Amino acid sequence: MDLRINREHQARLDLVEGLKVYVAGNVMPALRQDFEKWCDEEKPTDSQLRDATYMHAKFDDDPLYQASRGLQRISQESMWREVIYGLDRRKEAIEKELDTPSDAPGSLTLDPALQMPVYYEKNEFHLQPGNYHRNTIAGPIYEVGVATYTMHRYGKAGDEMGRALVSVMPPKKYQRVLYMGCGPSYKGYPVVNALPEAEHWGIDLSAPMLKYARHRAIEHGHPINFSQMNAENMGFPPGHFDLIYCMLLLHEVPKKAVVNIVNEAARLLAPGGVLANLELPSYSSLDPLSAFLMDWDTENNGEPYWRSYHEMDLLATYRQAGLKSQLIEAHSEWGGAKGNYMGKFKYHVTMGEKIGA
Ligand SMILES: C[S@@+](CC[C@H](N)C(=O)[O-])C[C@H]1O[C@@H](n2cnc3c(N)ncnc32)[C@H](O)[C@@H]1O
Fold first, then answer.
1. pLDDT of residue 338
2. Per-residue model confidence (pLDDT) at position 24
3. What are phi and psi of 176, to 5 degrees?
4. What domains, with CATH codes, occur in the chain?
5. 3-state secondary structure of 276
6. Are 243 and 177 in contact (CB under 8 A)?
């Protein structure tokens, strides 16, 4: 599918991306420099720097902080607006393509009766208007928006998280593989390419995402089976999969749902099977300023569960679900890039193995 938008909207989108690059590459480093100088003079303790009230008292009236956060919010809103205006001009044609059935290998099963959880229904994650499920072309909107959002640091194919995941996956024979919260699914293509003999499944709550995922997978020659399900309660039999993975799913659901999803994945794994979850680093593994800046998303970027996820003990949740668990860091091209407010970072992959192999 051709996702190019017309020149006028593309020019504005490029401007938005330039703004994001400027904030990340110039404003944030200046903010960090001021902060480090202030720390040298005032000598705050580490526990003070980890205290949100203390940090807000320091930063809330700081013009550089205010400017950086304001520009971040404006760039996010403008980004979605330009993507949506840009793609809306071809909306009918895109919808027609997405609705055309295909007998290509793989499948698409939608469930119009599936109940959307309240935490999902009531939110617009990272400010995407209509969320993932209320716009018929949410899939293309997400793909074009995310490329700009991440300043094209997920690589040309937008799949660098999937490549990072493959790089740390335990070498085993995986026959049936499930991608939970797959969205448009392209970040999972490196997993599909690494395991060409396996049967691949993708589930998501959103019908528009899955229609796009199916269309895209056919275009790329991937025989993936897509099904509309809630990851908290999937309709597969116990022990059905050898590998279950997700990327950027767990930070978008409340803690109770994270526990439900981990338990459900553990139920679906065969003995010796693997659960791999890739996300950005936990707050405690980042320096205090990066953690504080990252936390801003919780209240200001449509990410209500960002804080609870990045502070939770996921390894304990895995263990309680009967998984032998460990945290593995995976190389991130994005995390190594210059102009990144979190400094250099690696992805966190929470890896679990179902005991009883
Ligand atoms: C941030 S997007 C990530 C999509 C994809 N993993 C990627 O990285 O491009 C989160 C995805 O999880 C889906 N999702 C959120 N909660 C879910 C749930 N409880 N069950 C299944 N999918 C869910 C959303 O519809 C969305 O497609």
1. 61
2. 86
3. -125, 125
4. 155-354 (3.40.50.150)
5. strand
6. yes
Pocket of ligand 1 (CB under 6 A): 117, 120, 132, 181-183, 187, 203-206, 209, 230-232, 247-249, 252-253
Instruction: Sort strands 241-247 and 225-228 into parallel, antiparallel or unpaired.
Output: unpaired
Burial 60-93 (b: 16+ CB within 10 A, else e): eeeebbeebbeebeebbebbbebbbebbeebeee
Residue 341 has a pLDDT of 65
Atom of ligand 1 nearest to the CA of 179: 6
> For the segment 162-200, what is each residue's pLDDT rounded down to a tens digit?
999 999 999 999 999 999 999 999 999 999 999 999 999
Closest CA to 342 of 296, 302, 311: 296
pLDDT lower than 70: segments of the chain:
336-343, 357
Distance 254 CA to ligand 1 centre (A): 13
pLDDT given at position 158: 86
Q: Indicate the top mutation candidate among 228, 252, 303 to test ligand 1's pocket, ranked by most ligand atoms within 8 A of CB.
A: 252
CA of 249 to the centre of ligand 1 (A): 5
pLDDT score recorded for residue 332: 84
Q: What pLDDT is recorded for position 18?
A: 92
- pLDDT, tens digit, for every residue of 50-109? 999 999 999 999 999 999 999 999 999 999 999 999 999 899 999 999 999 999 999 999
Q: Measured from the CA of 119, which atom of ligand 1 is nearest?
A: 16
DSSP assignment string, 42-60: H---HHHHT-HHHHHHHHT
Mutate to test the pocket of ligand 1, among 109, 204, 232 (most ligand atoms within 8 A of CB): 204
List the Cα angle 328/348/54 in 5-degree steps: 130
- Which DSSP symbol is given to 124? -
